[in-house]
Amino acid sequence: MAYRFRLQKLLEWRQSQLDAARSDLERAVAVLEQSRLALVRLDMSRQEADRRVMGAASLDGAELHALERYRLKIRQKALEAKQHIAAGEQRVCEEKQHVVDAHRQVRLLEKLNERRYAEWRIAEQRDTERTASEAFLARWQPPS
Predict the structure, then answer these.
(1) What is the domain range of residue 95?
(2) Total structural domains in the chain?
(3) pTM, to two decimals
(4) Which in 72, 92, 123, 124 has the greatest CB count within 10 A?
(5) What is the phi/psi pair of residue 11, to 5°?
(6) CATH number, domain containing residue 26
(7) Is 84 part of any domain?
(8) Cβ neighbours, 10 Å, residue 5
């Protein structure tokens, strides 16, 4: 009789949950990296605007006012980006925990499978030994 793990379907389902959790984590990390990249771009844009102002020969009031509005808009966008980063970091932490939990569930079932397989092998070996002993005793003839 071949070994069959009765909880194999559950193990496969748990494995699919683990794969899904890993995919969710990858997506969360990608979103976090995009948010961080957006913040870096905003900072580079602000620095470029500051360099242009410093390099300009003269500035009138309208240009200074436009620069100040631009800086304010950049600060607002940077604040939003930082909030997105904080939310992204929180989501990555949550997704990591989901991966850990799913992995724990899979490992639990895998260990149970290993234990039951070992028990099955021992039972099969005992059955084989018993059959061999019975066959030997059936053919054995006491000395006359």
Answers:
(1) 8-132
(2) 1
(3) 0.75
(4) 92
(5) -60, -45
(6) 1.10.287.1700
(7) yes
(8) 16
Instruction: Identify whether 3 is part of a domain.
Output: no
Token pair listed for 124? 């099969």
In this predicted structure, the answer to whether residue 132 has a pLDDT above a threshold of 80 is: yes
Mean pLDDT (whole number) for 103-117: 98
Whether 64 maps to a domain, the answer reads: yes
**pLDDT digit string (tens) for 26-82?**
999 999 999 999 999 999 998 998 888 777 777 788 888 888 898 899 999 999 999
